[in-house]
Amino acid sequence: MKKVLLLVAVLLAGLMMVAGCARDKEPAEAAIKAAEAAIGAAKAEAAKYVPDQVKGVEDALKAAKDAFEKKEYTQALNAAKDLPAKVKEIAAAAAAKKAELTKAWEEMAAGLPKMVEAIKSRVDMLSKSKKLPANLDKAKFEGAKAGLAEITQAWTDADNAFKGGNLSEAIAKGNAVKAKATEIMGALGMQPPPAAKG
Q1: Dist. CA 20–CA 73, nearest whole Å
Q2: DSSP character at residue 82
Q3: Residue 129 CA from chain centroid, whole number
């Protein structure tokens, strides 16, 4: 008799679990759809600034879908239900990162063109001069002239990257211009502005 009761208890527990899982099917489906919609809306912008976090929620969504396919509805629901809130956090992190990069770009854009202009002015002046200063030989001067053309183009590329919405790329290119401009200024015996020394 005890064995029969135990068997009935196990069967009832199993049926309740199946019923519970089946009951979670619609909520799981709705949670997955809500997560997909949230990720779809935020992904393009967030992927530019916080790609690792975007990958994390995409992986979690995939896990929820996989569980749903296996009819593990409770697991699917648990995996998907918090994703829209996480996506909101990611969108906020992306907005903060964008603001930070925009500020860095604005500071760069305020100073770098002046550095490039100062180098151009010095190169133009030295080109007209009959004799180069004692600390500057012809090879160094030619290198500085070539470098000027290089940084002028690189700054245009950085500016285009910024206008195209690729802030990280614009900052990276701008930093390369800054480093090269500082090097050219040193070769020409010029004093780089304090902001450029860092």
Answers
A1: 9
A2: T
A3: 47
Burial of 77 (0-12, 13-18, 19+ CB in 10 A): buried
Tokens of 61: 């969504």
From the CA atom positions of the chain, what is the Rg in Å?
30
Asked whether residue 131 carries a pLDDT value surpassing 90, the answer given is no
Give the HSE-up count for residue 176: Cα atoms under 13 Å, Cβ half-sphere.
17
DSSP code, position 131: S
For residue range 37-59, list pLDDT tens digits in order: 888 888 988 998 999 999 999 99
Mean pLDDT of the chain: 84
Q: Give pLDDT tens digits for 58-76.
A: 999 999 999 989 988 889 8
Pairwise CA distance, residues 112 & 168, whole Å: 17
